[in-house]
Amino acid sequence: MRGAIGVQGRKSEKKCSDKEKALWQKKAEEQAAEIRRLKAEAGRAEKGLAQWGRIVDAILAQMALSHGAEVGENAFEIVLPTVRVFENGRDYKVTTTVAPDEKNYIIRVEKRE
């Protein structure tokens, strides 16, 4: 009798194991689908950021040239009337100082290498 119960127990354990495997397989497939979705979303976001970066490059270059910067410089300074300024920590290093007359900000924009 004991042997028969033990055998039944093992068969029962094997069935549970198969059920668990199926459950884990289903979860793995769901996770793989989620990863594919996130990668696609990240790809779209990256393309959007790249396009935004090109727009920022063009705007900054135009500002620099219109304020007397020379083509080929890695950094330039722009003096503008007092404005609200933020720091962008991604592609550009933006530093600001107040001009001695305290009526202008000096904004230094450096392209990160």
From TrEMBL:
Coiled coil among keywords: yes
Organismal lineage: unclassified sequences, metagenomes, ecological metagenomes
Protein's recorded name: Uncharacterized protein
Coiled coil feature spans: 21-48
This protein's UniProt keywords: Coiled coil
